[in-house]
Structures are given as structure tokens and as C-alpha cells.
Amino acid sequence: MKALVVRAAGLAPSVEEIRLPEVGAGQIRVRIRAAGVCHSDLSMVNGTLNPPYPLVLGHEAAGEVVEIGPDVTRVPVGAHVALNWSPPCRTCWFCENGEPWLCATANIAALENGSTLDGAPLQVALGLGAFAEEVVVPAHAVIEVPSSLAWESAALLGCAVLTGTGAVRNTAGVRSGDSVLVIGLGGVGLSVVAAARAAGASSVIAVDVSAAKKALAEAAGATDFIVSGDTLSKDVRVLTGGRGADHSFECVGRSGTIRAAWRATRRGGQVTVVGMGRGDDMVQLSALEIFSSARTLRASVYGSSDPDLEVPQLAQDVLTGALKLDHLVTDRITLAEVPVAFERMTRGEGARSVVTF
Ligand SMILES: [Zn+2]
Ligand SMILES: [Zn+2]
């Protein structure tokens, strides 16, 4: 079966035949039907993250269960599932204290699973490696979704939508009437925009370096759009009664945009960092400004969510029309076209590219 494999840092990923392991106890095999190209995939090939190689990319995906291990009762063969890249163990301190998104056993960058045809052990991104025709994963890394849900929607629920929606609802707790600033309009940022609007935000100011994102931002529910520049915090103040935004969401993962979000937030406001950046990219805040601004700076990991509970709820919202995802998918591609999708992402074009099988 075919998968998109990165052989080494800096090398372009290419489609290869690979060998998956047999389905063992506690595991299932899923035939992938749709897989979104997430910025974290790009981070694994452009040097931002340093995962081991050879590596199968892909973690935002949905598919059909085609085989289950002897003891698996979680899902039957034939079930439609979204993949979960941070499946909680339910037994560690974090899981038992209501923070399953910080599970001590999850969030591994890569896991050894399967091999290349020349016999090298393969790593799979975030324990999944979903840019592949099939995956073999732990049963608790899938969440059943209604069979009437479109594959593309099911895939996006597993990363961009859960992350963006959870950041607004769970991490930040945006309330009706709040003013909200969103910096970085990829799949996650656009999901933040939509969730903030749905939460009743009085204004949702969407910001990107690319002017071409304006139409996407407005389709997602933004009330204002600003091309990122030196006057950002002044521009945001003009739109927020001179104070700055009640909530800012940084969906890029860079010190410069974290600083920009911080500066454009009102005194006492809240800055939520959703983007994942480099280990050596330092954010500078003075001791005085931390005190005098009285702002809160926090991170949102996987939307501070419990995917087992929230993915099925979000799936229902999509089916009833309360949550619209159509505007998020701007390109439908093949596995071999993922590197082209990375180039679009680097240029700041489009929203999600989704590999369909
Ligand atoms: Zn992702
Ligand atoms: Zn745990």
C-alpha cells in the first residue's frame, strides 16, 4: 500500500509503497478516505520540528474501519471514524484530573510503525501517519462519526476544527459581546473565527499577511479583516473602542505574532497561543508590561478538548448545519500533490488542502 514518506529532513516527501504491521491486540486498521494537510505536517519537513525519519506524514484524517484486533470492542468493522492524534490514556494524572489533552502518554511526535519496502523501520507522524491508503493504529485513536458525515468534514474535525473550536470555547471561554482578534488564517485560524462568531463575539477581527485571505475570513464569519503590518495594534484599537481586543488568538506559532497578539489585546484581556512554533524562537515580555498590562497569556493544546466527547458533538453540529466547514476546504488533491499544498501553505494561499482517496 502507498504512503507519503519523508526520507530525511529537507528532502521532499514522495509516494512510496510501504509495509504496515499486522493488526494486533488493541489495534485496528483504517482505510483512509480523506486527510487534510495541516501546518504541523509542514513543520515536520521544513526544520521547525525535528522528528525521526523515514516518516509518514498526516494526522488530520478520516476513514473506514476494515479490520479490528481480537479484543477490540470500541468500533466495529465498517464504522466511519475520525483519527485522534492525541488519544488520552484515561489513567495518568492529567486524564484523571480532567485535562486529557495534556495526557502524559500522548502527543508523541512520531512512533515506529511498519517499514519501508527496503526494510527500514518507518515512523508515523503523531502516532498516525495518515497520508497513506491505510493505517494501523490503537483502537482508542479513532472516534466513530455518523456515516452520513462527509469524509472531508470528518477529517477536519480531528485537527483544525477541534483545535480552533476548542481554543474559543474551552481554553479562552469567549463570551457573547466579546471582541476577538485572530492572527493567522489557515485551517485552525478560520475555525477560530467561525467559533468566535458562533459564541456571539461582537467583533471578530481576522488578520493575515496575505490579503487574499479576506474572502475566506468573511466566509468564516469575520467582521473585519486586516493585512498584518506594523500598525496592527493601532488598527485593532480603532475597532475596539481604543482599548484593544478582549481576546486574541495567535494561530501562527511565531514570537513576532505572539507579541503582536499581546500588544493588540486590551488591559486585562486574554491572549491564547494556538500555533506551535520553534524551540529557539524566544518571546520577550518585560516584567513591567506583564504586571501593568494585567493580560493573561496561555496556550491551547488540541483545543483543551476531550476529543472522544467533542468530535461527535461537532459532527452533529455539521449535520444540522450549525457548523459549516465547506469554506475550509479550498483544494482537493492526491497524495503526490501534498508537496504542492505545502508550497501553497508557505505562500499563504487557500485554507485546507485535503487528500481524497
Ligand atoms: Zn494538525
Ligand atoms: Zn493520560
Automatic annotation (TrEMBL):
Entries under SMART domains matching the protein: PKS_ER
Alphabetized Pfam families for the sequence: ADH_N, ADH_zinc_N
Organism encoding this protein: Winogradskya humida
Matches recorded under Gene3D superfamilies: Medium-chain alcohol dehydrogenases, catalytic domain, NAD(P)-binding Rossmann-like Domain
Sequence similarity: Belongs to the zinc-containing alcohol dehydrogenase family.
Cofactor names: Zn(2+)
Protein name stated in the entry: Alcohol dehydrogenase
Stored InterPro entries: ADH-like_C (IPR013149), ADH-like_N (IPR013154), ADH_Zn_CS (IPR002328), ER (IPR020843), GroES-like_sf (IPR011032), NAD(P)-bd_dom_sf (IPR036291)
Claim: Oxidoreductase is one of the keywords in the record: yes
UniProtKB keywords: Metal-binding, Oxidoreductase, Zinc
Enoyl reductase (ER) domain ranges (all copies): 10-355
Keyword Transport: no
SUPFAM superfamilies, per database record: GroES-like, NAD(P)-binding Rossmann-fold domains
Domain of life, per lineage: Bacteria
